[in-house]
Specification:
9% strand; alpha/beta; six-stranded mixed beta sheet
Length: 337
């Protein structure tokens, strides 16, 4: 059960992420912003006059201004005279994450192919909106009526504080409700999908081949086809988050200390009473099966003689049954930089 809360919590925006939420995110965000307009106005008044650096201005910011421990996880693979890289991404971000460490950018510049989970530049917004409407809405069975007793208790407590969010997700199927709750939590913490790592590299890959290992449609279908028990589990994880969990995850990503974060996650999953069987089933669908597909895709490109820079959610590179492990089983030496 070591990985389960890592997946349960912000891994909804780390392993699958806001990619899947992209086509409904703007609408949800508008509703959220309207409900909190006065609060956000106060926040604006309290801001200092100092302008924070944006991605577009990253070259104006010195790398030496970054913390000494800013070192997101990255690995390299040497094969047939070419070097490929595996970079653990996070699908949301903030200005202070940029510029990325020099070793990350050097690896990206030296690579021929950018590999991502899904190419968000290819999203057909109208098609995606229609697909989400078909898969994610359930007008006849409101969310509170389909939750397990245990999850319903946690959900009701969450709604006492976040009534506006609960109003948004009331007619969503559990998997979409969980993703929306996670997305709103990320926004509250000051992070944005516009500053996500994947999006940054896709913007920067004008002269590179871009290959996607999955697709938005495939991710949506995977989530929609999850057993109801696991969807309930996703909601439980989303509404049971504690203050500071987002920051803990982001700091773990910044420092590349994913295993340490998982140890904390394991303890929290035990407190939630997650069974080993449910955890194993969830991990197999959400991580392990996808990891095998990703490893196969990366290996095929390396065999073709490509120098690959693979940017996928950091959870896919961590621990047992990871992309790294499956690549090693194929005979590649995966070395952390």
């Amino acid at each position: 059960m070591k990985k389960i809360l890592y997946v349960l919590g912000l891994a909804l925006v780390v392993a699958v992420g806001v990619f899947v939420a992209k086509s409904f995110f703007s609408g949800v965000k508008d509703g959220y912003d309207q409900a909190h307009a006065e609060h956000k106005l106060e926040q604006e008044k309290e801001k200092t006059a100092v302008e924070k650096p944006t991605i577009e201005k990253q070259e104006e910011v010195s790398v030496v201004e970054k913390k000494d421990d800013y070192s997101p996880a990255i690995w390299k693979i040497e094969h047939a005279g070419k070097t490929s890289y595996l970079f653990g991404s996070i699908h949301v971000g903030e200005d202070s994450m940029y510029p990325l460490p020099k070793k990350i950018m050097d690896a990206f510049e030296a690579s021929e192919v950018l590999v991502v989970e899904a190419d968000i530049n290819k999203i057909d917004q109208m098609k995606m909106a229609t697909m989400i409407q078909q898969l994610a809405l359930d007008l006849e069975n409101p969310l509170p009526t389909v939750l397990s007793e245990k999850t319903k208790v946690e959900y009701d407590e969450f709604c006492e504080v976040k009534a506006n969010i609960c109003s948004m997700v009331r007619v969503f199927e559990p998997w979409m409700a969980a993703m929306t709750i996670e997305a709103m939590g990320v926004m509250e913490s000051g992070y944005s999908e516009e500053l996500g790592i994947d999006k940054y590299f896709l913007k920067s890959a004008e002269d590179k081949m871009v290959v996607e290992l999955e697709s938005i449609e495939g991710q949506l279908n995977m989530l929609d086809q999850m057993p109801k028990e696991l969807q309930d589990f996703m909601v439980l994880g989303a509404v049971s988050k504690e203050e500071g969990d987002t920051e803990l995850l982001m700091e773990s990503w910044r420092t590349g200390k994913l295993e340490e974060f998982m140890e904390v996650a394991e303890e929290k999953s035990k407190l939630l009473g997650v069974s080993d069987d449910v955890a194993a089933q969830f991990n197999e669908i959400f991580l392990f099966k996808r990891n095998r597909v990703m490893a196969n895709g990366i290996a095929e490109l390396i065999k073709e003689g490509k120098s690959v820079f693979a940017v996928v959610g950091a959870a896919h590179y961590a621990g047992e049954n990871s992309v790294n492990q499956y690549l090693e089983e194929k005979g590649y030496k995966v070395e952390r930089l």
